[in-house]
């Protein structure tokens, strides 16, 4: 039967009108939990059955040994199905009492994800599945991570739904994703992160700190500043550029996402910076440099190891300049 699977303790299949009584009992008994993040309706199964289509599918998870209970472990909805070059969908799910927390729903959800990636007609032949979860719903996020879904991003005001406060409002969501090429996945696998680095150079007093802070905020990256680590370089007056740099490179190497690195480098420090970037896992020729230039006094010049954007810091960095530099950094970090 298409869209069906059997596991050790549960089985998965599409909903039918024969499920109405079990569904009504399951949703009613679980209302106290589900109402924190949804609008549970114990009477809407006929509408769900009637809505089944190529762009919206539901999967019911049933216990293979229900005993005297209703047997309905949970429901998974797959919506917003897009074919063509995208082959993607979003997934939502509810676990029902008395089965929540027993591991049965996790087994069923694993079977459902397998069906989403399975070839047609038995499955949906998708490439990508996304679960959008409110940040306060740690239990659902933990379930997604236990199947190997990874946190891919954050969507502000994503859905107009209830929250734990009981009010309908626009709710932020975290995006957790799985690709067919990654399935089956290791539980709680590490998040694959793209590492990005940007250098901010210039003479002391050239306004580097302001530029570096703005870039770090735009890119969502840590800020590593020479000024912040000078205290770790004993006996340096003026600060030892090499000593400060070595600390920055170690911090950059340890960062799983990279960083905006702000230092008092001049053209003569190019060899040192090149070695540091290489040791931190970056190709110096691909790392953008923002050179803060007080044109009337600056004779230091940029490092020029990679793409250079010179900013006249006698005037504030414009939003357009900031975004242009940030986009150049993203392009460089995406290059093979």
Automatic annotation (TrEMBL):
Keywords: Acyltransferase, Transferase. It comes from the Bacteria. Gene3D superfamilies: 3.40.630.30, P-loop containing nucleotide triphosphate hydrolases. GO terms for cellular component: cytoplasm. One of its GO terms (molecular function) is protein-N-terminal-alanine acetyltransferase activity. It holds the Pfam family Acetyltransf_3. The keyword Transcription regulation does not apply. Residues 9-150 form the N-acetyltransferase domain. Belongs to the acetyltransferase family. RimJ subfamily. PANTHER family: [RIBOSOMAL PROTEIN US5]-ALANINE N-ACETYLTRANSFERASE, GNAT FAMILY, PUTATIVE (AFU_ORTHOLOGUE AFUA_3G00765)-RELATED-RELATED. This is Ribosomal-protein-alanine N-acetyltransferase. The lineage of its organism: Bacteria, Bacillati, Actinomycetota, Actinomycetes, Micrococcales.
């Amino acid at each position: 039967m298409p869209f069906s699977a059997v596991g050790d303790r549960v089985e998965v299949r599409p909903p039918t009108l024969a499920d109405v009584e079990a569904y009504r009992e399951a949703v009613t008994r679980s209302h106290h939990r589900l109402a924190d993040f949804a609008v549970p309706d114990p009477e809407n199964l006929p509408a769900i059955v009637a809505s089944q289509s190529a762009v919206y599918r539901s999967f019911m998870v049933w216990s293979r040994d229900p005993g005297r209970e209703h047997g309905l472990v949970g429901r998974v909805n797959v919506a917003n199905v897009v074919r063509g070059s995208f082959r993607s969908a979003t997934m939502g799910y509810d676990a029902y009492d008395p089965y929540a927390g027993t591991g049965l729903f996790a087994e069923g959800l694993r079977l459902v994800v397998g069906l989403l990636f399975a070839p047609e007609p038995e499955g949906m032949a998708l490439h990508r599945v996304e679960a959008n979860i409110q940040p306060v719903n740690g239990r659902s996020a933990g379930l997604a991570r236990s199947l190997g879904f990874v946190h891919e991003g954050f969507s502000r005001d994503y859905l107009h739904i209830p929250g734990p406060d009981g009010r309908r409002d626009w709710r932020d969501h975290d995006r957790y994703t799985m690709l067919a090429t990654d399935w089956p996945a290791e539980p709680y696998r590490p998040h694959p992160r793209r590492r990005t680095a940007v250098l901010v150079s210039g003479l002391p007093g050239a306004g580097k700190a302001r530029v570096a802070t703005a870039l770090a905020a735009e890119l969502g990256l840590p800020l590593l500043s020479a000024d912040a680590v000078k205290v770790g370089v004993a006996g340096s007056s003026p600060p030892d550029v090499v000593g400060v740099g070595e600390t920055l490179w170690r911090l950059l190497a340890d960062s799983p996402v990279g960083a905006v690195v702000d230092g008092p480098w001049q053209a003569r420090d190019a060899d040192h910076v090149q070695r540091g970037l290489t040791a931190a896992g970056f190709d110096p020729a691909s790392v953008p440099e923002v050179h803060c230039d007080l044109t009337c006094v600056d004779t230091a010049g940029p490092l020029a190891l990679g793409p250079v954007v010179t900013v006249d810091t006698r005037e504030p960095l414009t939003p357009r300049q900031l975004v242009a530099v940030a986009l150049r950094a993203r392009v460089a970090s995406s290059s093979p």
